[in-house]
Amino acid sequence: MSDKSQNPPSEGAVHRDQDGPVLRLTIDRPARRNALTPAMATELIDALTTAATDESLRVVHIRGAGADFCAGVDWVATNNDGRRPRTGDLVRRIPHTANRLIELVHTIHLPVVCTVRGWAAGMGCNLALAADFTVAARDAMFWEPFLSRGFSPDTGSTWLLPRLVGLARAKRMLLLGEKVGGSEAAGWGLIHEAVDPGDLDRHSAELVNRLAAAPTVALGLSKQAVHDNLDASLSQALTHELLTLELACRTADFKEGLAAFRERRDPEFRGR
Question: Is the pLDDT of residue 177 over 90?
Answer without folding.
Answer: yes
